[in-house]
Write a structure and sequence with these properties.
The chain has 416 residues and is an all-alpha fold. The chain folds into 2 domains: 283 residues, no CATH class; 81 residues, no CATH class. Helix content is 74%, strand content 0%. The N terminus is likely disordered.
């Protein structure tokens, strides 16, 4: 059933945010069937643990998988509501896709659901990155993980493309929003900071709404028709145990509340603090740590686990992980609690419409470099094409595609 703009404004997609969520009566974007019964903690646990173990490809790919699981398969909420969570979390510091996972958990079972979803999504990446740190220090070889990534990336590219198409139809449901989305994608490709794009898009959408209101008040409806402007890693030299725990906690806690954007933005903050200001590590060690974070599924912010291990061993890894993710649990909970009120506000909803259009544009802009990194030979091109066909035509579970392709990639990469 098509959902009108006014219907989206007033939809109450989720009722009650306590531990016992009553059955939601809003309808899915593709049918008149009510959303299913409240979600059990066990289902939240299983879903986000699985996503944490298989979500390769960075934040945009993570969001694509969550869209498939939460919107398409489980019918937890409409695409519009999902976009609201994505847009709001993109305005927060910290790992955006991880905060969306937390907000999804909150929408189903309140704070308990948030804790379960966030923890299950974070821990697999942290443990995997910790294992890489151990291998990095002792053996200096990550060839096995690179083989898994060789196979998994083409599937993640197909999942991302599918999500951009589906979410784009919701985020760009009017001509002004569609033009705004195109302009945001162009700005992202030109290198403009993602946070600036999101805020500017929200501001432009507000200006369009204000212009419409002024035009209607004066009787000049024509004013609203104006267009919108728009390998192997070297062994690290750092010896674990060289940094005190309290300074380590302070640095990574600050990063958790100050870093906006992707893992590449995190790299800039880490360079400024750990390399230039504190001299705890050198630039090569930092690049190795970020690379290890990208080789694992789940949030790239799990790079903190790797660095914590290098700086203070097992205790440093645990403390750095806790510190960098802790602020996100609080902020994502506030987004989950306020999302419906924001959407029901006429002016805040207009701002969020612009942010959502920009968020989908940013996802689309990520697809290009991911495609260049993923589609490197005939096998990877074929994998991406077959995956897209299986996802769209036969609705194959994305997790099984990722696991199967990663396994084949490991075999093929070992023979190269």
């Amino acid at each position: 059933m098509a959902i009108s703009a006014s219907g989206i404004r007033n939809a109450n997609a989720e009722a009650g945010y306590g531990h016992m969520i009553p059955t939601v009566r809003a309808t899915s974007p593709d049918s008149d069937t009510p959303f299913p019964r409240p979600t059990s903690l066990g289902e939240i646990f299983r879903l986000f643990l699985r996503l944490g173990m298989t979500a390769f490809g960075g934040p945009a790919a993570h969001l694509a998988l969550m869209q498939v699981e939460a919107v398409e398969r489980r019918k937890w909420m409409t695409r519009e509501r999902f976009l609201d969570l994505v847009g709001a979390c993109n305005l927060l510091p910290g790992p955006g896709s991880t905060q969306v996972a937390m907000a999804l958990g909150y929408s189903r079972r309140g704070w308990t659901g948030l804790l379960v979803a966030g923890t299950c999504f974070i821990l697999p990446a942290s443990f995997a990155t910790l294992a890489l740190a151990w291998i990095y220090v002792r053996f200096g070889s990550l060839g096995v993980v690179q083989g898994l990534l060789y196979g998994a990336k083409p599937v993640m590219l197909a999942i991302l493309a599918q999500a951009v198409w589906k979410l784009g139809t919701s985020a760009s449901r009017t001509i002004p929003l569609a033009l705004l989305s195109v302009a945001c994608a162009a700005a992202a490709l030109l290198g403009l900071h993602p946070l600036l794009i999101l805020i500017a898009a929200g501001g432009l959408a507000l200006l369009v709404k204000l212009r419409y209101r002024l035009a209607r008040a004066s009787g000049n409806f024509a004013a609203f028709a104006a267009p919108v402007s728009a390998g192997s890693l070297p062994v690290a030299a750092t010896t674990a145990g060289s940094v005190a725990l309290l300074p380590l906690l302070a640095v990574f806690l600050k990063l958790g509340v100050a870093v906006f954007g992707s893992g590449y933005v995190l790299l800039a903050f880490l360079q400024a603090d750990l390399v230039q200001r504190l001299h705890w590590i050198n630039s090569q060690q930092l690049l190795d740590a970020v690379t290890a974070g990208q080789l694992t599924p789940g949030p790239v912010f799990a790079t903190a686990t790797f660095l914590g291990y290098l700086l203070r061993g097992w205790s440093g890894a645990a403390l750095a992980t806790l510190a960098i993710f802790l602020p996100s649990f609080v902020m994502a909970g506030l987004v989950g609690a306020m999302a419906e009120r924001i959407r029901n506000s006429s002016w805040a909803g207009a701002f969020l419409d612009g942010v959502n259009a920009a968020a989908v544009a940013l996802m689309a802009s990520v697809a290009l470099p991911l495609g260049r990194a993923s589609l490197i030979d005939g096998w990877t091109w074929a994998t991406a094409g077959v995956s897209a066909l299986l996802l769209i035509r036969f609705r194959i579970n994305a997790t099984w595609l990722i696991l199967a392709s990663a396994g084949l990639g490991l075999i093929l990469h070992s023979r190269l």
